[in-house]
Design goal:
This protein has about 425 residues and is of the alpha+beta class. It has 3 domains: about 100 residues, Double Stranded RNA Binding Domain (2-Layer Sandwich), CATH 3.30.160; about 80 residues, DNA polymerase, domain 1; about 200 residues, Intergrase catalytic core (hpI Integrase, Chain A), CATH 1.10.443.10. About 50% of the residues lie in helices and about 10% in strands. The protein contains 16 helices and 8 strands. It has a 5-stranded mixed β-sheet with strand order 1-2-3-4-5. Strands 6-7-8 form a 3-stranded antiparallel β-sheet.
Length: about 425
Amino acid sequence: MFPTGCAMLLTDQSVAKLTIPEGKAELIVFDDREPGFGVRLRAGGKRVWICQYRAGGQQRRVTIKSVAELTAAKARDRAKALKAGVTLGTDPQGERLAEKERAKTTLLHIVDSYLEHLERRVKVAAMKRASYDATERYLRNHWAKLHPQPAHSLSRREIAERLTAIASENGPISANRARAALSSLYTWAMKEGLLETLQANPVAFTNKPAEERHRDRVLSHTELREIWQHSGDSDFGRIVRLLMLTAQRRDEVANMVRSELSIDRALWSIPAPRTKNGIMHDVPLAPSALEIIQSIPVAEVKEGEPRRDLIFGAGKGGFSGWSRSKTDLDTRIAAARAKAAEAEGVEPVEMPHWTLHDLRRTADTLMNEELGVQPHVTEAILNHVSSQESGKKGVAKVYNRSKYAAEKRAALSAWADHLLEISR
């Protein structure tokens, strides 16, 4: 039961004369005209109008305003309105308490729960590890600035503004991927009952940062040489050169682990959970690719900690910082072009936009067109699976995996030699 004092007609004058009895921390006095309407005095001098009512079988008390902000007459009218709302089913104090609870469910809380759900899907092979890693990267890195916000109250405006920032910092395609990851998170959370007050997914009504089109860009010899020469010896530079030499996917190279490598056999075996098609993939390593991998030092760990198996990046994750590193590489290439143009007395020509995935397409095209590698061999190198082979299982799949091993090794060795010749 709430502590109460005597009842009296509450007016501005009568309230001004009230004092707290000695030894008490507060005094509550109710109005003898309007049930539930009262005033609370605190020892520190604070005086507020209150309204007490019952809702859902519980006694509630809500603060209306401070005595200094509202006259007794207006506060009494507010109390009447509050109680009228309670009669119609509202519960002001209950809603405030519920809002406080909802505020504890931040976006980060939902991100953690969602990733735990996806991790379980990975363990039962319902989701590829590469897809999980990408989703985790977008949710933890790209949306980090909104993590402290209550997930149920994020507005479309806030999401749209963050998407604009992501597009500016990491490119529109990354913003598209980040948007898709957040939308999937909200859909899941709503179905799980974690965001019961939401009527609709707030991401669904935001604009897509970019329209994606199929690319067919093949880099020229000059462009390949520039990329190779200016990629540098950082993690990013080594990844770029390995992408050029192996023709594998960006995240497959960036998340390479030492346990996947057989140095003696010059072979990199990418496990099924890390490939796009879910099929284990063997990549023969040319001497130049092997040299790059062996030049990467093993990260030091503190005593008692397990060895870090990931080759690139730091901490628990693989390489990150794609946008910044790609921009730096483009800047170095542009500077070299400008210097060469100045020496020749001509205007510099800007290198057309290119992506890391263009390196994979270029390797595929040039192996076929300039080295005569048969399409079925380049398909095997790229780990593309034809419709006739995609359904094979067991022994047939193992046989098919090793079917073109010699051809793949010969092709990648020839391609590495060709690329090094181009890059001189």
